[in-house]
Design a protein that fits this description.
four-stranded antiparallel β-sheet; 35% strand; Cyclic Phosphodiesterase, Chain: A; 184 residues; 3 helices; single chain; alpha+beta
Length: 184
Amino acid sequence: MSSSGTVESRERLRLFCALTLGDDVVDALVEWQRRALACDARTVARDHLHVTLAFLGSSPAAEVPAIAEALRAAAGRAAEPMLTPRRYRETRSVGMLVLDDEDDRAGRLAVDLFDRLEQLGLYRREARPWLPHVTVLRFRRPPRLRPELPELGPFSPSGAAVYHSLLRPTGAQYEVLERVALGG
């Protein structure tokens, strides 16, 4: 675990692995949120914008090094993902920016990670296929927005990370426990 990790090994943590976004992508998304998503819903904070690869949920803190190693191995083998905004979509509680995944590079990274985490007994794959997206809005009732897409063009993630999600009355707070590079 990195020096930023401050957890006891007996604790259980709400964990997920995700692709991280570069500052230029985050800056563009935050500006787009401000302009295009003006409503009573809560926009996702800039430090929380990411592309989830695998949500592990409640896991022993002692497993963080193994999870980080699985992510490091999968990310090290991955071709550089290239993502492009395709459409805005709302579910019952979130608004997301769905992404096209050129040559399924991010998808292959996700499947490699799923396989590694399953072999460790730390993850159970979801029945639905993995969907590359960035959650940009949270709400109690869908606002039924139809915003123009942000003018990002194709972009590559800046890396990947293991996150700890702490649930708070004001919403989840994310702490990066371990960062890894893409492509070795």
